[in-house]
Amino acid sequence: MLPERKWEAEPLLRFVAGVCFCLSIGALASSAVLPKAAFATQEGKFFLFVTNSLVLHGGTLLLVAVLLRQHGIGWCEGFGFRREGIVRTLGLALAGVLVALPVALALQQLSAMGMKSVSVQPEVQVVVQTLQETQTLQQRVFFAFVAILGAPVVEEILFRGILYPAVKQRGWPQMALWGTSLLFALTHANTATFLPLTFLAMVLVFLYERTGNLLAPILTHSLFNAANYCALVFQGELRQFFKLPS
Question: pTM score > 0.85 for this model?
Fold first, then answer.
């Protein structure tokens, strides 16, 4: 059960505006530093990824700290972080990823088949393309840090920790569930992953509701990303191990 907290409208709107600003400022900063032609190169794409990640994740966490201070609460009170019931929280997080992974994979395959049936070729996410083009261990380590730690923490605080209860506690539980889930999928800007990410978001909401501890959806999200990261990075090795055609 989610703890009763009410994010006040004015600080919340300032917070959302700040996150939107962080979304755009990273790309603008990169454009100011690099020439346009550089963004077609692997180095340019990686530089853009680094800039966007640092600005968005760092900026969002700073904005969250300000929002919590405005409400006079700490991180544990704001998002239910606690030691009590940690075994149950970890168990539900593991169960969540065991459910989400196969269903999300099946939904992505169905989405790809549906797009191809209407002569639309599914496109790989820009971030995934950049990861596939990485050439050094340092770049892959940075990607792993962002995908497995940075993104799950920031996205869960934003979507499940703040936006979901903010809408629900104003009397619109269904809008909170569907609205934040669809918005979560939309922000990844990829048609083929829209359905699987919407499903993942709904699983993450369920976990937060069941535990009242944002650690559960963070861990599930992190494990989900870790599995996808390993599948991309070790694609060749996995195909060889399972004797799959390339």
Answer: yes
Q: What span, in angstroms and rounded, lies between the C-alpha atoms of 99 and 212?
A: 20
Query: Where do the structural domains in the chain lie, given as residue ranges?
Result: 9-241
Structure tokens, 32: 């100011």
Contact, 216 vs 156, CB < 8 A? no
Q: Which sign, positive or negative, has the C-alpha torsion 229, 148, 97, 123?
A: negative
- The amino acid sitting at 106 is A
- In this prediction, residue 42 carries a pLDDT of 81
Altogether, the residues listed in the chain come to a count of 246
Torsion angle, alpha carbons of 38, 28, 49, 123, to 10: -80
Nearest to 188 by CA among 80, 99, 111: 111
Find out whether 121 and 115 touch, Cβ atoms under 8 Å. Answer: yes
How would you label 53-66 residue by residue, b for 16+ Cβ within 10 Å and e otherwise?
bebbbebbeebbee
Residue pointed to by tokens 């892959």: 140
> Which ranges of the chain would DSSP assign to H, the alpha helix?
9-33, 42-71, 75-79, 86-117, 126-132, 137-145, 151-155, 164-168, 173-186, 194-211, 215-233, 235-241
Task: Specify the pLDDT at position 166.
Answer: 94
Ramachandran angles phi, psi of 84, nearest 5°: -60, 135
Q: Measure the CA–CA gap between 228 and 246, rounded to whole angstroms.
A: 18
User: Is the sign of the CA dihedral 182, 184, 189, 192 positive or negative?
Assistant: negative
**pLDDT under 50 in the chain at which residues?**
none
